[in-house]
C-alpha cells in the first residue's frame, strides 16, 4: 500500500466533452517537488473508494506544490473527484513510474502521440521541451479525439505551435459535427516526413499504442526509440 498524503482541491473546470481539469495543492506534504519526470503518475483515493492511477498533467517543478490532472468521466472514482468542491481533501500517493526519458531525445526530432485523456501525460512533455526548445529537432504532436469537442487543452494548442510544436489533430468519429479537419487514427497521418531517427513518446489506449508502434516500425523507427510512461 502506498503512503497517503492529504491534498486540497483548489479548482476544477471542464476541459473538453467528458473531461475535467482538477488541480490539487500538496503544499505542506513530503510530496512537494517529488514530481521529477514528465509522464509520471500518482494514485488518488477517496474514503470508501478504490484508488486509481492518474497521470500528472502539469510539468515537473523543483518545488512544485500544485499538480493538475485530467479526469475522464464515466467511472466511480473520477466521477466522485469531479464532484468535489474547492477545499475538499483527496488522498494522494508519491509519483510513480519512470516517466518519459526526454534526455534520450536531445538532438533528435520528436514525435508525440496522444489520444483522448492520454494527452494528460504528453502535456508535461510539451512544457518541458518548450523550456529548452533548442535542445531538440522538429517536434510534432499527433493528437486524436473521438469527436471535435473532445480535445482537451484546446486553449493551449496555439501557444504550443507558437513554441515550435507542430500539432496534427484528427477525429475518429466526426459524425454530423461539420468537422473539416483530419479523420481516422493518429498513426495514419505520419505523411511523408522522414521519421527514422526520431524519438517517439506515446500515451493512449493499448490498441492505439500498438497501432502507433506498428506504423513507426514500418517507417524505420527502432523499438528502442519508442517510449511509454510506465
TrEMBL record:
Pfam families: NAD_binding_1. GO terms for molecular function: oxidoreductase activity. Residues 2-102 form the FAD-binding FR-type domain. PROSITE patterns: FAD_FR. It comes from the Bacteria. InterPro entries: FAD-bd_FR_type, FNR_nucleotide-bd, OxRdtase_FAD/NAD-bd, Riboflavin_synthase-like_b-brl. This is NAD-binding oxidoreductase. The lineage of its organism: Bacteria, Pseudomonadati, Myxococcota, Myxococcia, Myxococcales.
Amino acid at each position: 500500500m502506498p503512503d497517503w498524503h492529504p491534498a486540497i482541491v483548489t479548482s476544477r473546470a471542464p476541459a473538453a466533452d467528458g473531461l475535467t481539469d482538477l488541480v490539487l495543492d500538496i503544499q505542506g506534504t513530503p510530496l512537494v517537488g517529488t514530481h521529477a519526470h514528465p509522464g509520471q503518475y500518482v494514485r488518488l483515493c477517496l474514503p470508501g473508494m478504490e484508488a486509481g492511477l492518474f497521470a500528472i498533467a502539469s510539468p515537473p517543478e523543483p518545488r512544485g506544490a500544485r499538480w493538475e490532472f485530467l479526469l475522464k468521466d464515466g467511472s466511480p472514482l473520477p466521477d466522485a473527484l469531479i464532484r468535489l468542491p474547492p477545499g475538499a481533501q483527496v488522498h494522494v500517493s508519491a509519483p510513480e513510474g519512470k516517466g518519459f526519458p526526454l534526455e534520450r531525445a536531445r538532438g533528435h526530432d520528436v514525435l508525440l502521440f496522444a489520444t483522448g485523456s492520454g494527452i494528460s501525460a504528453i502535456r508535461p512533455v510539451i512544457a518541458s521541451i518548450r523550456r529548452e526548445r533548442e535542445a531538440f529537432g522538429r517536434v510534432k504532436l499527433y493528437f486524436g479525439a473521438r469527436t471535435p469537442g473532445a480535445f482537451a487543452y484546446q486553449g493551449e494548442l496555439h501557444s504550443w505551435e507558437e513554441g515550435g510544436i507542430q500539432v496534427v489533430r484528427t477525429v475518429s468519429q466526426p459524425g454530423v459535427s461539420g468537422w473539416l479537419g483530419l479523420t481516422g487514427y493518429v498513426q495514419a497521418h505520419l505523411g511523408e516526413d522522414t521519421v527514422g531517427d526520431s524519438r517517439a513518446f506515446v500515451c493512449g489506449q493499448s490498441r492505439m499504442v500498438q497501432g502507433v508502434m506498428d506504423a513507426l516500425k514500418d517507417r524505420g523507427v527502432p523499438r528502442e526509440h519508442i517510449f511509454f510512461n510506465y
